[in-house]
Amino acid sequence: MISALRLRRSGSHSNQIINMTYSKRKDITTVSKKTEYEKKLQIQLDEFSTEIDRLKARADKAEEPWHKQQVEMLQEKHRQAKQKLGELKESGDDAWEDMKEGISSAWDSVSEAIKSAANRF
Q: Where are the domains of the chain?
């Protein structure tokens, strides 16, 4: 309460400084959340790649055309997810929040396709 009273007494200039400080803190928080999100997605993308490579090895041994088609489809979905991650990394600090839904959809698509292929192989 003491600091609130002091702020009221000191006038609008202090309020502007506080608002600017809050805005900068918000920007820093947004950047750090975006960076954390990018790292999380990169880890998942690497895990997808490992799983696709494992399924590709199994498909090569099986010598079934549909196995290879499944792997090609997985690789395409992986490329699309990787492209989304690239777009996220290039996006502005405010725009990335708007991109999350599309990215989440791409990640879900890859994840579900990998699970489905793994169950079939």
A: 31-120
